[in-house]
Design brief:
Elements: H1 3-36, E1 39-41, E2 46-50, E3 59-64, E4 68-75, E5 78-83, E6 89-94, H2 95-98, H3 116-120, E7 124-133, E8 136-148, E9 151-161, E10 165-176, E11 184-199, E12 209-225, E13 228-240, E14 247-259
């Protein structure tokens, strides 16, 4: 296996690890919710149950005032619930609707609106950004998973649009957050990947190039509201070319992200 194929293998392994890491805590969190199964009482005249976790799913059942509702699991701002009167029905209810229910002691239930604590304790996130790649325009997207509040694994892909050539870049990165609880949370990042460059058609035909890259940089996430944050980042990339000299590249970008 040559060096380039080995690098593709490492990125593929990293993607598999990231995907497994994302699914594992989600499944574990749901199993804990199912273990305790808290109950609330409908205080409004009715509570609508949807067939899925979203307003686009149809309402198939309406619980009445005084009905007991068991909370089974949560997916972002939607809760899967069970109503046992007159026979069990299971469906999805938005957090805002559940905020009008009462606990078994008659107190109003706080369903926990999202805030800075959720931002600092997020598990995975995704986003898109635009910026400058050594004088060329660039668009990119990423998926990240927080192994701990201080360390995040990230897969990133982007498109480079230049005057003389276009390119595609894919990388695997590690982000380190020294202050994860801050609303404006700075970070350091290191990583590696592959960049493919395709020159525009000219009188002299140039070959497409594929080079390995290594990168290091700094950035910051700014929590906005709900599940949204602004991300700003600078990276210094080194293209490990087959020529005598490696190529140094500066990248600046900013964009918006959501976390789950």
């Amino acid at each position: 296996m040559n060096k380039l194929h080995k690098h593709h293998f490492h990125i593929g392994w990293f993607a598999l690890l990231l995907f497994s890491a994302v699914l594992s805590p989600v499944a574990h969190g749901w199993s804990l919710f199912e273990k305790y199964q808290p109950q609330v009482v409908v205080s409004d005249p009715y509570l609508e149950l949807h067939t899925g976790p979203g307003r686009g799913y149809p309402v198939f059942y309406v619980a009445g005032q005084g009905d007991r509702v068991t909370l089974l699991k949560r997916r972002t701002d939607w809760f899967k619930v069970a109503v046992n009167h007159p026979r069990q029905k299971e469906g999805w209810v938005h957090r805002e609707a559940l905020s009008h229910t009462l606990d078994l002691d008659g107190s109003v239930v706080d369903m926990g609106a999202l805030g800075v604590d959720d931002f600092s304790g997020r598990r995975w996130e995704m986003g898109f950004a635009g910026g400058d790649f050594n004088g060329a325009s660039a668009l990119s997207g990423y998926l990240g998973y927080a192994m701990t509040p201080n360390i995040t694994l990230q897969l990133e892909g982007g498109q480079i649009l230049g005057d003389y050539s276009d390119g595609v870049i894919v990388s695997a990165n590690i982000l380190m957050f020294p202050f994860p609880k801050w609303r404006l949370s700075p970070y350091f990042t290191i990583g590696s990947g592959i960049i493919t460059t395709k020159p525009h058609s000219t009188v002299v035909v140039a070959e497409d190039r594929e080079d390995e890259i290594a990168n290091a940089g700094v950035g910051a996430n700014l929590y906005l509201s709900d599940r949204f944050m602004l991300r700003m980042e600078y990276k210094r990339l080194t293209a490990l070319t087959s020529r005598d000299d490696n190529e140094e590249i500066d990248q600046w970008k900013a964009g918006f992200s959501v976390f789950f």
